Amino acid sequence: MVHLSANGQDLRFPPVEQASPEGLLAVGGDLRPERLLEAYRHGIFPWYDDDQPILWWSPDPRTVLFPDRLHVPRSLLKILRREQFVVTFDACFTDVMVHCAGPRPQYPEGGTWITPAMIEAYTRLHDLGYAHSVETWIDDKLVGGVYGVALGGAFFAESMFMRAPDASKVALVSLVRQLQAWRFRIMDCQQSSPHVMHLGAEEIPRRDFLTHLTAALRLPDRRSRWQFDTR
Question: Among 162, 181, 185, 226, which is least packed by CB within 10 angstroms?
Answer without folding.
Answer: 181
